[in-house]
Design a protein that fits this description.
This protein has nine helices and nine strands. The protein is of the alpha/beta class and about 250 residues long. Strand 2, helix 2 and strand 3 form a beta-alpha-beta unit. The structure holds zinc ion (2 copies). The site of one zinc ion has 5 residues, from loops.
Length: about 250
């Protein structure tokens, strides 16, 4: 994967999302120590989600975040290029509101994820959570059906949301019991990648997968499918604490 820039981390969080630690400047310091030349904050935006915890930024948080991002960009401009972007959590019920948010704030980078699945009449399921409440509900609903719904939602997301990069594409059901992709799922993934190619969206290689399962997200087969379609690839650590900035990049780009 020679085209990958291993000195750029395109996906880090901060304490502002309520499930990560560390000030924004702590992340910049680690990036410098790791020899990175480019760092993109990609904080969580979600809207219309019914869930027992808040894993995203409020509007007040976003104001602080944007201002601090600008301050750090100026402070470190001679050593590293710092940018402030957003990781959009897709919600099919709130498409207009999400697009308005993206365009009004004019983020340097827009990542697209699908964290929360709506299940009729109940709370959303957080597909990426380790919390037993989510794992149990996924088992009840049927992992196979949920995975089909996940890819159906993600297909709609890449069609209607103006994003630059799709984050951890195969993260659906991350901590649930082993679910293998059926042929129908592979077809869905192919359709998503086709739309990304037409809309010039990059695919993120998310290095958080290395610790969790020994390879980045998404899996090799999807990376190859993306390569066949000529998609651009970018690296992201999905750091939720400062020491995770740039994790595994040397290994992935070797
Ligand atoms: Zn997060
Ligand atoms: Zn993330």
């Amino acid at each position: 994967m020679a085209e990958l820039n291993r000195y750029s981390d395109g996906h880090v969080h901060t304490r502002l999302c309520h499930h990560a630690t560390g000030e924004m400047e702590d992340y910049v310091r680690v990036a410098l120590a790791e020899g990175l030349t480019h760092l993109v904050f990609l904080e969580h935006f979600e809207t219309g989600i019914a869930y027992f915890a808040t894993t995203w930024l409020t509007e007040a948080d976003f104001l602080l975040y944007r201002d601090e991002g600008l301050r750090l960009q100026r402070k470190y401009r001679d050593r590293i290029h710092v940018e402030t972007g957003v990781e959009i959590g897709f919600n099919p019920a709130c498409i207009e509101e999400t697009q308005t948010f993206i365009h009004e704030w004019n983020w340097a980078r827009v990542g697209l994820s699908y964290h929360y699945m709506p299940i009729a009449g109940e709370q959303h399921i957080n597909m990426l959570s380790r919390n037993p409440v989510n794992i149990e509900r996924i088992a009840e609903y049927g992992p196979d059906l949920l995975l089909t719904g996940y890819y159906r939602g993600l297909l709609q997301a890449v069609q209607v949301i103006d994003a630059d990069v799709v984050c951890h594409l195969d993260a659906g059901l991350r901590h649930a019991a082993k679910v293998t992709c059926q042929e129908s799922h592979w077809r869905q993934i192919g359709e998503i990648l086709d739309v990304m190619a037409v809309r010039d969206m990059a695919l993120e290689l998310n290095s958080s997968g290395l610790a969790l399962r020994g390879e980045p997200f998404p899996c090799r087969r999807i990376v190859d499918m993306a390569g066949l379609r000529g998609l651009r690839m970018v690296l992201g650590s999905d750091a939720h604490s400062p020491e995770q900035v740039g994790r595994g990049f040397a290994q992935i780009s070797a």
